[in-house]
Design brief:
Chain lengths: 116, 115
């Protein structure tokens, strides 16, 4: 089955600096890669996603890149702010129609601290 | 529109007791999932369902059972609780419809302690 690894497990950056979190996946059939942010004591929420037919996607200060050949994808946060402090989870799934099971497998998470 | 609601929010069980966690969604989503979250281990998939009447095993299914008798509800059961099942449990749902909207909406979590 799918296995998602995520690095680093913890990351501290100064406010204004960039943060990069990397994930690798094992199942070459996976074609949908979302990123979730979980603030302390709250539920995870989707912040950005990318499908396998796209190499890069950007949304304001957040960007995600995908390398299908190497089976890895990364989250980039620029101009970090204290409110970016949270746990970030990458995930991988096979985005297919109802005829196939659609498991969403998460990485172990990265705890990001942005130091003012 | 409540989204995804989990019941209860907190529970303390004694070893060997049983309980059922309820997940209810009002978005007419097809897919529903149960995850457990433990420090340093992220969200691990326990069981999931791709539609009413269907269930499937995830990464860590042992010790848990599930049922999806109604599309809007996904129940997670612990028949004989063990201390290793102490965790925060999250339910999630995904549309799964023809528009391929694959954003997962999570419940608020259930903190379960087994003593």
């Amino acid at each position: 089955g799918e296995n998602v690894e995520q690095h680093p497990s913890t990351l501290s950056v100064q406010e204004g600096d960039s943060a990069v979190i990397k994930c690798t996946y094992s199942d070459s059939a996976s074609n949908y890669f979302p990123w979730y942010k979980q603030e302390l004591g709250k539920r995870p929420q989707l912040i950005i996603d990318i499908r396998s037919n796209v190499g890069e996607k950007k949304d304001q200060r957040i960007a995600v890149t995908l390398n299908k050949t190497a089976k890895h994808f990364s989250l980039h946060i620029t101009e970090t702010q204290p409110e970016d402090s949270a746990v970030y989870f990458c995930a991988a799934s096979i985005d297919v129609m109802k005829t196939s099971y659609d498991k969403v497998i998460f990485g172990p998470g990265t705890s990001l601290s942005v130091i003012p | 529109n409540a989204g995804v609601t989990q019941t209860p929010k907190f529970r303390v069980l004694k070893t060997g007791q049983s309980m059922t966690l309820l997940c209810a969604q009002d978005m007419n989503h097809e897919y529903m999932y149960w995850y457990r979250q433990d420090p340093g281990m992220g969200l691990r998939l326990i069981h999931y369902s791709v539609g009413e009447g269907t269930t499937a095993k995830g990464e860590v299914p042992d010790g848990y059972n599930v049922s999806r008798l109604k599309k809007q509800n996904f129940l997670l059961g612990l028949e004989s609780a063990a201390p290793s099942q102490t965790s925060v449990y999250f339910c999630a749902s995904i549309d799964g419809g023809p528009l391929l909207n694959t954003e997962a909406f999570f419940g608020q979590g259930t903190r379960l302690t087994v003593v």
